[in-house]
Design brief:
By secondary structure, this protein is an alpha+beta fold. It is built from 16 helices and 30 strands. A hairpin with a 2-residue loop joins strand 2 and strand 3. The relative contact order is 0.08.
């Protein structure tokens, strides 16, 4: 390669700490737009991780080869580009470094290295890059630094002035009010759609918006779902690559999803699942605002915030990296090698230094647990292959709104009843909690109080159960006769809903002077398959079958839980706080050839009411814990 012969440097001191500046100054897509660099029109792989970029600059077609960004969290980032003619510069490398200063100030240094193609490139490079680009870059950094100094939560203005249809926006906001959405949330959303930058109104995460506004996450998610029905927002499904965690494709409907997906950036094919691979995002409706969805940068640090460091490591070389790691699980990987290592940063450990050795098909770390904070990681590449090393957080973003969560909400099933997977396509879900219920003695109820009153009670019982399930972020999947199948993404929420259901149909009915309804409830949690059943989203698998069988072990007025729930820490903590009685027992469930550890949960201080006729207030003798069997699901 041609050597760099032009070296330029610029620096600026900003009155904001590094942790506030990094998220916005490392957003290279926005920075490129602010300094007037060209947008991408198309890309294609060149070799390994290098991409060929095509676009226009000053009306002239341009193309260049972009090497992967390298960065260390809150310290520096850099990128190297190789340009094709007619650009008079062969290669250009830019590096931005962050140095903390006293009094929460930060020095930002920008280094530019160029290899000109000819004399025009030598002169023009110094003028165009050395004066114009660096001057605009300092101006952009100064503007963003001032905003970071003023507030912990930085709101960035649009780079370009968008066109807003205020009349349509007002009508959509009025329709949101008709859905009962809180006025403050509607105002926040409308202000965001008017004043935020284009990328911030495209592919929005509801939980990220909630965190930015300081509002409850589920409330903001529900507002976004309703906003799609008012014409304010559009909903899309992102299929995320497990490696880079970027969207490898987007689907406008669940019916467009497939069993697997391919990420061209990582050159990997992977199975999709509702828990991590598929995420719902929201974009402003184009009738409300025009927003330009064009990239200006491929792989900057802001595009993959879960990656804390990405760096090139030549063959047969060693690199020492100093990082600031928060407590959590991490992994180190390279696309060029099959070996991966996992390690954990904890609040207290024996060492703050880890040594990692990469071989062709394996990798080793010592020690696997280090103390969080400022750490040192020594990486040895003992192979003959250059590698791009990635250090990333193992946990998926807590701000991601997974398909497993969204599709388990009552509001989703009400607003998107036509949303279903394609026939024959089953998407894996790693963990959901299923609640099955049945109304015990409903036949006797019809005989004792008459068809019309009995039907009204059964109908009201369905409506009340649906409301309680929805209030705990679950969804009623279907009913068969007097039975209900419901789904929850949270184990604790499912158990809380079950307790409220039993309290409502026992203590609540009795307080209103009505006889208690004997509802049988069973819950189980685990993996399943989401499928299309009669053009509705449904779930199948052993977890669903077990949950249905567990409900058969309920005798009415109780809740039967499997050990998948009682061994779950949030559920155990929740039950300890509640005034409930637990009765562990074991049972071989019908059709399943093994013993299950079950727990019967009583929500009543006494079970005397179990012996009472359905039409009389509770009373009579106490019934000991027995396992009854109801109708099979």
């Amino acid at each position: 390669m041609e050597p760099y012969t032009i070296h330029l440097h610029s620096s600026i001191v900003l009155d904001a700490p590094v942790h506030r500046l990094w998220p916005i100054l490392s957003d290279t897509d926005r920075i490129n737009r602010m300094v007037g660099l060209p947008a991408f029109e198309r890309t294609q792989p060149d070799h390994d991780l290098v991409q060929i970029i095509y676009g226009h600059f000053l009306g002239v077609p341009v193309s260049w080869r972009e090497h992967p960004f390298e960065w260390i969290f809150e310290q520096q980032f850099s990128v190297e580009r190789e340009f094709d003619p007619p650009i008079p510069i062969k290669r250009l490398q830019t590096t931005t470094r962050f140095s903390p200063l006293p009094n929460e100030r930060t020095k930002v240094d920008v280094e530019v290295h160029m290899a000109p193609r000819n004399l025009f490139g030598s002169i023009g490079g110094r003028l165009l890059v050395g004066q114009r680009m660096l001057r605009q870059l300092r101006q952009a950094y100064r503007e963003l630094g001032q905003r970071a100094a003023m507030s912990e939560r930085v709101t960035l203005p649009p780079v370009r002035q968008p066109r807003i249809n205020h009349q349509r926006l007002r009508v959509a906001a009025e329709r949101l009010r008709a859905f009962g959405i809180r006025e403050t949330l509607i105002d926040r959303l409308t202000d965001h759609l008017i004043g935020a930058d284009d990328p911030q109104v495209l592919k929005m995460r509801a939980f990220a918006l909630a965190d930015m506004w300081g509002e409850p996450r589920m409330e903001v998610l529900r507002m976004c779902l309703y906003a799609t029905r008012t014409g304010m927002l559009d909903l899309e499904w992102d299929v995320l690559c497990p490696s880079c965690r970027g969207p490898s494709r987007r689907a406008g409907s669940l019916s467009d999803l497939e069993h697997d997906a391919y990420c061209p950036s990582c050159d990997v094919r992977y199975d999709t699942n509702f828990d991590e691979s598929i995420e719902v995002r929201f974009s402003v409706n184009p009738d409300i605002r025009d927003a330009v969805d064009v990239p200006y940068c491929i792989g900057g640090p802001a595009n993959t915030p879960h990656i804390v460091a990405q760096m090139a490591l030549p063959a047969q070389s060693q690199r020492e990296v100093r990082l600031r790691l928060t407590p959590g699980r991490y992994r180190l990987r390279s696309r060029q090698m099959t070996g991966r290592v996992a390690f954990e940063a904890v609040s207290s450990a024996a060492s703050r230094t880890a040594h990692i050795v990469f071989r062709s098909e394996s990798a080793r770390i010592d020690p696997p647990i280090i103390e969080a904070g400022n750490v040192t990681i020594i990486i040895d590449n003992v192979t003959d292959t250059p590698a791009l090393i990635v250090i990333e957080r193992s946990e998926w973003s807590v701000q991601a709104t997974s398909a497993a969560l969204v599709t388990s909400l009552t509001e989703f099933r009400q607003l998107f009843s036509s949303e279903a997977l394609s026939p024959g396509v089953g998407i894996a879900v790693r963990s959901l909690t299923f609640l099955f219920s049945d109304l015990k003695g409903s036949t006797a109820l019809y005989d004792q109080i008459g068809d019309s009153p009995a039907y009204a009670r059964v109908r009201d019982h369905f409506a009340l159960m649906s409301a309680i399930i929805g209030a705990h972020n679950g969804s009623l999947v279907k009913t068969i006769g007097d039975a209900v199948m419901a789904v929850f993404s949270s184990t604790e929420a499912a158990v809380a809903a079950a307790l409220e259901i039993q309290r409502e149909f026992t203590l609540g009915e009795m307080a209103r002077g009505n006889p208690a309804l004997r509802v049988k409830l069973g819950l189980h949690s685990g993996p399943c398959i989401a499928v299309n059943a009669n053009n509705l989203l449904d779930y199948f698998g052993s977890t669903v079958n077990i949950a249905a069988r567990v409900q058969n072990e309920s005798i009415g007025g109780d809740i039967v839980l499997t050990d998948a729930l009682t061994d779950d820490l949030p559920v155990r903590s929740f039950l300890e706080r509640e005034n409930v009685r637990l009765e562990p027992f074991e049972r071989e469930l019908r059709g399943l050839s093994r013993q299950f550890k079950l727990t019967r949960v009583w929500v009543m201080p006494s079970m005397d009411w179990l012996d009472a006729p359905l039409t009389e207030p509770p009373g009579g003798s106490t019934i000991q814990s027995v396992a009854g069997r109801g109708a099979a699901w």
